[in-house]
Amino acid sequence: MNTISLSIEDLLKDTEYGLELTLLAGAAGIGHRVFSSRIQKPGLALTGYTEHLHPDRVQVLGNTEISYLRAIPASQTEQNVVKLCQFPISCFIVTKGLEPPDILKREAEKAGIPLLVSPHQSSTFISLITKFLEERLLPTTHIHGVLVDVLGVGVLLVGKSGIGKSECALDLVIRGHRLVADDVVYVKKKMPAALVGQAAEAIQYHIEVRGLGIINIKNLFGVSSIREKKIIEMVIELVEWDAEQEYDRLGLDDEVYTILDLELPYLKIPVRPGRNLTSIIEVAARNHLLKGMGYHSAREFHEKLLARMDVRPLGDEVE
Which CATH number, 3.40.50.300, 3.40.190.150, 3.40.1390.20, 3.40.1180.10, labels domain 6-136? Predict the structure, then answer.
């Protein structure tokens, strides 16, 4: 189960997604946790069949459920509601501004199950709360690095402090590319398999350049030079040049970098005076786009080389 969770109080405090929730009963349970972005409509559970009830999910009661509780005999309503409230349910949410039966209010209050109401239609509310929960319950992490949008490719630059990541990002911005985040990149896993990076709000649009200080990219270069968030598509690590180290010179083997259990294409670029890192990163992004179209330059060159070695003129054999 996802260890990230939200409390019912977090749902009540929402102002961004327009849930418009009001607490009617069960205030003692507003600390209940929600772990899943999936909701449940407990229609069958209200009839007494609780076999497939998921108490850890938000339980949404719409016009059908409330009408059913009002239509059946009061004794049966009480029996079914009492049985339902014996489960450790995270919360009940009644849509369309409907007034829930008194028995549901009483049992929810007694069991400490938050009972909330929203003015939205069921379909609208389910769409809103699903988006809210999906966004808030996604796995997240933060990485020391720089995220830039290069030719539409989200490139995450990593490497030890002072290696030149921010300077590379600044040079890329000057060349017309876009900054997403500098220093700290907050990464969120979007299902099923995408990682979205963005900056912390306090340092958004800013870059720290040693010797120059902190500069505001948006103010200096305009809104076309920044992005609020971007899907990360490749990772480039900047490392100090080591004459003893053997670096990849062919690019035949594709390495990967794992973030939140997702593997991303990974390149290691050695840094030394005279190397134009900005051009290398830009070409790396172009090459990534080509690979996405099924064209792998290094492998094609390797295959052509092997083909030339296999077809040699007569008389070239060495006895």
Answer: 3.40.1390.20
Catalytic one among 10, 14, 171, 183?
A: 183
The token duo for 75 is: 């004794």
Known active-site residue 144: yes
> How far is Cα 257 from Cα 263, in angstroms, rounded to an integer?
5
Pairing of strands 91-94, 58-61: parallel
List 57, 136, 165, 230, catalytic entry? 165
Single out the residue of 46, 29, 33 nearest to residue 115, CA to CA. Answer: 29
pLDDT at residue 247 is higher than 70: no
| Residue 165 a catalytic site member | yes
Is 296 an annotated catalytic residue? Answer: no
> Would you say residue 2 has pLDDT above 70?
no
Domain with CATH 3.40.1390.20 in the chain: 6-136
- Looking at CATH, the fold of the domain delimited by 140-287 is given as Rossmann fold (3.40.50)
268 is an active site residue: no
